Amino acid sequence: MKLFAALLGVCSGIVLTAGSVIEINGSFAGSKPGDKVPRGWHMNRTNSPAGTGSVVREGGSLGVRIVCPDREVHYFSGKFIPVKPGESYEILCGVSGSGKAGAGFYVYDGQKQWICAGAMPAVSLKRGKREMLKYRITIPADFWKRVPAYIQANFFVTGRADAVFRDVKLEKD
């Protein structure tokens, strides 16, 4: 809980202007329906080994469907994005389904050792309606006496959920 409260101090809500797009394979190109993990991404199952995920094709585009009976399941970009203190980044993604979903970042030091995670509060989904998730982080000068040097974008479900994520983008202000 202290970690989450501390992160609220360094992470903020929605960005108002678009910046430069950073490639993280948010369209899941090179993946096939049925793949458990899309190309260029990883599934973090530390919190909920019971959750499942797979690449699906809906409406002509690829997405990632996550089904979770409880807890959380995260997918995170395989690419480490180099960052500097003071820079701001935003993850955007479309999601539809049921349950709760969100997006955020994992933050690492110069040796690519995990420092912390920051995420938006999970949004309740309504079946048949697509939501656009947005979460912004400004890189702090230090966090727990460590200097952030890399981030990875992530999206997740929490609690009972059945959701499809697509069109994931990462922008730098």
CATH architecture descriptor? Sandwich
What is the global morphology? globular
Q: Unreliable segments (pLDDT under 50, ≥5 consecutive)?
A: 1-17
Just give the CATH class. Answer: Mainly Beta
* Distance, first to last CA: 29 Å
Mean pLDDT, all residues: 87
What's the total count of β strands? 12
User: In which range does the helix fraction lie?
Assistant: under 10%
List the helices and strands and how they pair.
Layout: H1 2-10, E1 11-12, E2 20-22, E3 41-44, E4 52-58, E5 61-68, E6 72-77, E7 81-82, E8 88-108, E9 114-119, E10 123-125, E11 131-138, E12 150-172
Antiparallel strand pairs: 1-11, 2-12, 3-6, 4-5, 5-12, 6-12, 7-12, 8-9, 8-10, 8-11, 8-12
Main attributes?
single chain, 173 residues, mainly beta, Jelly Rolls, twelve-stranded antiparallel sheet, 1 helix, 12 strands, globular
Short account of what is shown:
This protein has 173 residues and is mainly beta. It has one helix at 2-10, and strands at 11-12, 20-22, 41-44, 52-58, 61-68, 72-77, 81-82, 88-108, 114-119, 123-125, 131-138, 150-172.
What does this entry look like structurally?
The structure is a single chain. The chain has 173 residues and is mostly beta strands. The chain has a single domain (2-172), classed as Galactose-binding domain-like (Jelly Rolls). It is built from one helix and twelve strands; from the N terminus they run αββββββββββββ. Strands 1, 2, 3, 4, 5, 6, 7, 8, 9, 10, 11 and 12 form a twelve-stranded antiparallel beta sheet that branches. The longest helix has 9 residues, at 2-10. The chain is globular, with a radius of gyration of 15 Å. The chain starts with a helix and ends with a strand. The model is unreliable at 1-17 (pLDDT under 50).
